[in-house]
Model the fold of this input.
Amino acid sequence: TAIHETATAAASGANATERFKSDKFAGVAGTPKERVSLLAREVLEAVHGTIRKHKVTYDEYNALKSWLISVGEDGEWPLFLDVWVEHVVEEVATEHREGNKGTIEGPYYVPGAPEQGARGSVPMREDEAGTPLSWTGQVTSTDGSALAGAKVELWHADADGFYSQFAPNIPEWNLRASFTTDDEGRFEIHTVRPAPYQIPTDGACGKLIAAAGWHAWRPAHLHVKVSAPGHELLTAQLYFPGDEHNDDDIASAVKPELVLDPRPAGDGEAIEYGFVLDPE
Ligand code: MBD
Ligand code: FE
Done:
């Protein structure tokens, strides 16, 4: 639509880069020298191995250099890393868990979304496009006990595949909200079903996708962060059955445990999906 013609990779990338700097830079100092040396050396050795194995040419080396420069210029380091690297970091970070499967956060989370209590609607425009979605669920601990006062933060793209605060002309907290479970750990959320999502194609990541003959699609998804005192933070995404990109998500972030089972309800759909958190 017309208002989205001004959505550019460079603008959403710049927003994602700023968001990352303001939320997450604080935690990055203090990696021990031995660990930095080990990891940096092994990554570089993997690159050297690829160059030798495939006899990479100077033209190819210069293409890489110019592409890496453009990733930074387009603000797409968060996008690039979250699409092609984060899923393995998430796998390693959560392999000990007995509770809910999680998946990657991606570049578009914003803390501090409006609080709606245990039951309510996600902020949306009066004419927000998309099938109404009613979602009920319960947050429990791995021992089965209900977690009252747990926080369920939800964010997702609109029917055009755009996220508020990263694309222009969308209200600040559109399709972003925070819920708090009731005494029985239950919540009820009203939103709209998101559409399949294409990562920006007009920036450096899009250039790589085009040059390699890949596609830019992720399946439709709802992002969540679920937290409760004394429990590990769960970051997850939920998916819809039958989406053609569930099997070839560009971000490799779909797991069978995260696919919903919607049923028709009223003028929309209803889903029942709860979360099991691991104690710390
Ligand atoms: C997204 O919406 C997303 O969830 C991920 C992981 C990467 C890019 C855009
Ligand atoms: Fe997303």
The helical segments are 9-24, 33-54, 58-73, 77-84, 86-94, 204-212.
